[in-house]
Structure formats: C-alpha cells, structure tokens
Amino acid sequence: xxxKYPLVQFAIHTGTADNISEMMNKGLVDIGLFLEPVxxxxxxxxxxxxxxxxxxxxxxxxxxAKKEVITKKDLLKLPERTNIQSELANWFGKDFSRLNxxxxxxxxxxxxxxxxxxxxxxxxxxxxxxxxxxDLVVQxxxxxxxxxxxxxxxxxxxxxxxAVSKFIEEINAYKA
Length: 176
Hints:
Elements: H1 17-25, E1 31-35, E2 43-47, E3 52-59, E4 69-70, H2 72-75, E5 79-82, H3 85-92, E6 100-104, H4 108-116, E7 121-125, E8 137-142, E9 147-148, E10 150-155, H5 162-175
Parallel strand pairs: 4-8, 5-6, 5-7
Antiparallel strand pairs: 1-10, 2-10, 3-7, 3-8, 3-9
C-alpha cells in the first residue's frame, strides 16, 4: 500500500479493544486491529492468518524462568498484570478470584518495566513483548495453552476518505 500511495500517512493509536472501538464509533479512528475475542457487530473485518500464544513474562533470574511452561497453579500466588481479564477468567475458571492482580496495563512497555523490576508477571500475547531484550525478560507459554487470533476491522456502511477506502480494498484483497 505504501508503495502504491507514498503520500499517505498513518497515525497509530494503541489501546484496549474498548478504547479503539469507541474511537472508531466517534470517527476518530478508521480501522482497528483487534485481538480476539472482540465484538465485530456493525463492522466488516478479516481475520489474520495464524494465532499467537498467550505467555507470561518475567525476569530472566526468576525461579519460574527455569520452567518450560507456566500453569495456573504457578500463577495463583504471584502478582501479575492482566489486560484481558475475561480471557484469563475462562482459563483460570473458579480459581480466577484467587489471583493477586497487582496492576493492569494497556501498554506492553509499562508491563515490561514492571516485569524487569520484579513487580509483576505480565500476561499477554507472545508478540507483545518480542522487542524486549531477552537478557532481561523471558516469556513462558501458558499451559494449558491459550491461543489468540487477530482481526482488522472497520465500520460498516459509512463513507471513508479515498485513502482509507483504498486501504480497505487492500485489506480485502489480502483475504482473497
């Protein structure tokens, strides 16, 4: 798209699905990239190929860093960070109320800083922390695993600028 339309500029906003949906409904954001589960009511969308694993991040010298995978039992007494509590509530089941949630965050950078300083165990998708230094933070897959897929969505039946319309055409060509 950038090669075809080099003068088009993008403004990227990071937030929760609720924040981005609200911005879309107010006309402040044209297209959203969402981690499922998300409501796509009133939207057209495509689901990206592949899935991402949910992981827990921690300092490299943390005792849990030696484990291959992290289980519910491992996390029940630890302070952790969560940003999609309903997904974790399903995974933990009846034990969700026993979690010690120290903080919530919608920005991976903040969660990573907390993990580096030993102040919590951020739970997020694998790709969210991929740019952190591996000598400071490690990620361990949850077991049983939780997989997440991503959708690109835009509001249905509204007029868009030519640049956004062309971008939506490109998105739709991707799924073909």
